[in-house]
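Why predict the complex rather than its parts? Because the way molecules touch one another can change local conformation, and only a joint prediction can capture that. The input here totals 771 residues.
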Amino acid sequence: MANLSLTKVKMPEQDPNVRNKNFDEVALGYTEEMAKEEATRCLNCKNRPCVSGCPVNVRIPDFIAQVVEGNYEEAYKIITSTNCLPAVCGRVCTQETQCESKCVRGMKGESVGIGRLERFVADYHMAHSKELIEKAEDNGHKVAVIGSGPAGLTCAGDLARLGYKVTIFEAFHKAGGVLVYGIPEFRLPKAIVQKEVDHLQALGVEVRTNFVIGKTLTIDEIFAEGYEAVFIGSGAGLPSFMGIEGESLVGVYSANEYLTRVNLMKAYSDKYDTPIRKSSAVAVVGGGNVAMDAARTAKRLGAEHVYIVYRRSEEEMPARAEEVHHAKEEGIEFLCLNNPTRILGSETGEVSSLEVISMELGEPDASGRRRPVAIAGSEHELTVDTVIMALGTSPNPLIRSTTEGLEANPKGGLIADETMATSRPGVFAGGDAVTGAATVILAMGAGKKAAASIDKYIKEKGSYQKIF
Amino acid sequence: MFKIVAKRQLNEAVTLMEIEAPYIAKKAKAGQFIIFRVDEYGERIPLTIADTDPEKGTVTIIFQAVGTSTRTLAQMNEGDAILDFVGPLGNATEIEGYKNVCVVGGGVGCAIAYPSAKALHKAGAHVDMIAGFRNKDIVILEDEMRAVSDNLYVTTDDGSYGEKGFVTNKLQALIDAGNKYDLVIAIGPIPMMKFLAEVTRPYGIKTLVSLNPIMIDGTGMCGGCRVTVGGKIRFACVDGPDFDGHEVDFDELMRRNSYYKAQERESANHECRIIKAGKAAEAAADALKTGLDTAASFTKEEK
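Output of the joint prediction:
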């Protein structure tokens, strides 16, 4: 008999007023009892709408059925047969717009907590499993993956399972891409990312850090080294600014820089040399997940006031509802329908305030959202000493500008077809490098699709024969 | 890990190291830079490449110990290894098509000016070089610079070596003497580059400066290295590090580079990792005194 509760089993969390002063994980994860109880809410529908909502096709009802039975390792095997990063996905995937949005239980009440269950299974496995990882039989073919973010890790994992010898080239000193430099520790502990990377290495994937493709090596040189195909998952690039006065004042950061200093370079820890501004009032400009991450990070670093400045209304905010909710609980102040007009500085060139103008919503624009329109004469000043711009990014030029025959769209994103193939034979691309800033799970989906296409490409081009 | 295969002290505060990095050695061109991270707790510090030996697979860096990471690096020895070393980053200095060039280096900036002069000289240009230092004791790379230039003019602020005066005076004198340069390259402390660009502006001589803003990834992701050039935001790591000196907002750059000054001082005060290891804090104090000679070390190392 299914559990008919209309709501998900509540996720245990750190108290908002405690957690907004530390970098420990906010959501604490289900216990076995909670997981089993939540798992019994799944109706095990025949047509499995949830699976169709998952970019990496996790067989959701099957793994949940194993959780009900307490067969957590079995559940783990089912998840990892299609998703090589379950502990990451269980935490940061936007399930509410993917699998959970299709869940039948969601028509009346809340959907099954698929993400929470996925996280439980992955964490259980990490804590309990001593099983040795089975390496696929080497098929003797080499594939290069550029970037070790969610797209690259997924692509590498899938190819390694098929027996390919995969090398990941990572520009930073640490693997994980946005999972280590962008998403904060309190949402995704870096030890979890490291474990997922370790797992891939155990599968035979080689990770070469400190390699900037387009600089240290070009795509052509990668082919010359004997790689038969390349997947580009280099992620998003240059941070966008508004083009308003004062953006180069001391105290203005891009969210990328702010988050990288804190997450990758661990500025929050005294042990590390990385400096970060000690702010007392911070304005974060933008309404996406990155803006929420930056705001919550600033709060944890001790800022008394942290404002989200967003030009539309909260309804249009692209951030996950859960993140907005968490941010509010932690004391982040939301100033919606406000748009920055200039940043004012002191004599020494440091930020002293942010001038914003009030907005109102007009007719729907191209995105279908109501267009924000400035209310003339409504400028007012917000006293802040730090401004963080979280306005998205434009694609990185390094690979495109050093690779002949690689086509890009007018915005600079690489062009890839539905198989993730680019205009250059043997070169595939996916994730933010193609789409511009998007989500972890969409990047993973692209990485997965590319892995299948690369396998097909190498087999079809005739060179494929099991070498060993 | 990247092995230090050679180390040489150029003056009390400036160190030369050859690092084993074969991929970078094969690729690097004059004007490009690397980023190193000395150990797990260190920052990512950009340094312009001073020289390479593709055969040996080594990259030469020259740096002044001014911040935590460069101080730690300066204490390391041949045979030790640096945790991270990545590059070559940024664009190479334009060297094609110039006939008569003046390359100006200030202090440790000479370490960056040297490879540019070398590349131009090799490309067949007539190269005059002006190398300015505060005093005789900190003169570096004199023989090397002499070997890659047609004329080398050394100046010192106090007149203790070479000609007394600033590099700006010398460049003005050379222009006044009738030298027709089609390119001036200026590399050194920000004020030096700023004033040098003012010397060439009235004559319309193309003037390239190599900028050293705060940077983290060096690949066009963090946006920390943005500089205003010709009224537009440019990113030194992917658009530079060389820019038109007549267009750069140097005052803004100077403010942005002093971003973490106070914190760095604090960090130097309770920098226990180094002091515990019994390593010289004195060298650091001396380095601070040498003031402006910081062109080769950026990030919060900039003083």
